[in-house]
Amino acid sequence: LESLPDRWKQKQFVTQKFPKNADNGFFVKQAYHPEPYIEIAEKYSQTQPLEKRKLGFGSHDASKTGEFTCSKSTERFRSLVKHENRLMEKHRIQAKE
After folding, report:
1. Which of 2, 5, 25, 48 could form a disulfide with 62 if both were Cys (CB 3.0 to 4.6 A apart)?
2. What is the percentage of the chain residues whose pLDDT exceeds 70?
């Protein structure tokens, strides 16, 4: 250690630890704000009341054009399709044997 120069024994790089933009910069302390759980994108019973729906194919189903704009609905559908594909593949393998 004695053969090392003095500049190598001290701190090499020093910066000021006072951020000038502490309120709107990268050094802001993050706070957690919980959001309520939302099952579907919209409540069709409120946006399309039963008496205003048209009778199509013998039912009063609501028009669900925005059903898969909600990521939770989309993920639920994707997992269902993946599960059905696994079942189909399992039965195909069993049928070959």
Report:
1. 48
2. 79
